[in-house]
């Protein structure tokens, strides 16, 4: 039986692609031709497909938990809403409010933690299609200077 | 000195990642480069093997990640240690020291 292969999420793909392109850039700076740099980068990285699949497996374990939490928050919100609507007692209605608040907070927390900068992804894919490979100092498509994180120490080989 | 490169012992990659991230948050490429530099290229590590390790460590809450901009303004995923990760690093360092001391003693005794 063939092992099941999951679709690689764009973030896993992008993260590994970044790594390979950085290696290519390093080798090109050392004087290799583009083709040699590409081959050397892939050799150095190892079995790209296997590593991708491993990461996808691990990510999907995470997303199963997230799905369960999402369902739990919906159930909690509906329960709270039902209590709120059906109950005439103020104290019991407060319990409904609390349940709704817990569900909404949980859902917001899940949303914030799982937020992906998908707005950038479209721009980056377009740039890739246009053949925009590594150019040190080049501005990333969709990036915002105002939100630039703390500079990371440059790592040289 | 020869060009021999040693395979990384099972389980030690995690310790190396934790140790590398102890100083600052880094992206995967930066972590591997730092490990290669520190080991003076004596360790045989396929760069890609880092990623399943990173994902597993994030799943266990030892590190967390966020997207940012790399030194050349490329979008990259940065990893940093969590409080649990810092505790794990301290424990793993102590464990490593115990093991290496024990193995050295055994080798010297025979």
For this entry, give a set of tags.
heterodimer, A: 157 residues, mainly alpha, 68% helix, B: 110 residues, alpha+beta, Arc Repressor Mutant, subunit A, 3-stranded antiparallel β-sheet
Shape of chain A: rod-shaped
Low-confidence stretches of chain B at least 5 residues in length (pLDDT < 50)?
none
Subunit arrangement of the protein: heterodimer
Give the CA-CA distance, first to last residue of chain B. Answer: 26 Å
- Count the E strands of chain B: 5
The figure for the number of domains of chain B is 1
Main β-sheet of chain A, in a few words?
Answer: none
Structural class of the secondary structure composition of chain B? Answer: alpha+beta
The SSE string of chain A, one letter per element, is HHHHH
> Radius of gyration of chain A, Cα only, in angstroms?
23 Å
Q: Give the largest interface.
A: A-B, 45 and 33 residues
Number of helices of chain B: 4
**What is the succession of H and E elements of chain B?**
EHEHEHEEH
Strand content of chain A: under 5%
Gyration radius from CA atoms of chain B, angstroms: 15 Å
Please characterize this protein's 3D structure.
The complex is a heterodimer of chains A (157) and B (110). Chain A is mainly α and 157 residues long. Among the domains of chain A are: 8-46, no CATH class; 63-115. In chain A, 68% of the residues lie in helices and 0% in strands. Chain A is built from five helices and no strands. Chain A has helices at residues 10-29, 34-45, 48-86, 90-113, 118-129. In chain A, helix 1 (10-29) packs across helix 2 (34-45). Chain A is rod-shaped. By secondary structure, chain B is α+β, with helices and mostly antiparallel strands. Chain B has one domain: Orthogonal Bundle (Arc Repressor Mutant, subunit A), CATH 1.10.10.10. Chain B contains four helices and five strands; from the N terminus they run E-H-E-H-E-H-E-E-H. In chain B, the strands form two sheets. Chain B has a three-stranded antiparallel β-sheet. Chain B has a two-stranded parallel ribbon with strand order 1-3. The longest helix of chain B has 27 residues, at 83-109. Chain B starts with 5 loop residues before the first strand and ends with a helix. The model of chain B has no long low-confidence stretch (mean pLDDT 89). The chains are: A mainly alpha (157), B alpha+beta (110).
């Amino acid at each position: 039986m063939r092992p099941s292969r999951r679709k690689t999420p764009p973030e896993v793909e992008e993260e590994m692609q970044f790594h390979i392109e950085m290696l290519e850039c390093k080798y090109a700076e050392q004087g290799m031709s583009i083709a040699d740099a590409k081959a050397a980068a892939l050799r150095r990285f190892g079995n790209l497909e296997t590593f991708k699949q491993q990461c996808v497996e691990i990510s999907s374990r995470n997303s199963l938990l997230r799905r369960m939490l999402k369902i739990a928050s919906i159930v909690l919100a509906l329960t709270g809403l039902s209590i709120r609507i059906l109950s005439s007692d103020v104290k019991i209605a407060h319990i409904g409010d609390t349940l709704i608040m817990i569900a909404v907070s949980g859902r917001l927390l899940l949303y914030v933690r799982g937020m992906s900068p998908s707005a950038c992804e479209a721009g980056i894919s377009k740039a890739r299609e246009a053949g925009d490979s590594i150019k040190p100092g080049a501005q990333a498509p969709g990036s915002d200077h105002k939100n630039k994180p703390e500079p990371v120490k440059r790592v040289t080989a | 000195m020869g060009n021999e490169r040693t395979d990384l012992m099972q389980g030690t990659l995690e310790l190396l990642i934790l140790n590398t991230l102890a100083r600052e948050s880094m992206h995967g490429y930066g972590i591997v480069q730092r490990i290669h530099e520190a080991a003076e290229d004596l360790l045989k590590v396929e760069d890609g093997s880092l990623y399943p390790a990173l994902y597993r460590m994030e799943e266990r809450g030892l590190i967390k990640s966020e997207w940012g901009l790399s030194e050349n303004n490329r979008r990259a995923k940065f990893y940093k240690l969590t409080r649990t990760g810092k505790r794990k690093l301290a424990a793993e360092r102590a464990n490593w020291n115990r093991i290496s001391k024990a193995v050295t003693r055994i080798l010297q005794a025979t």
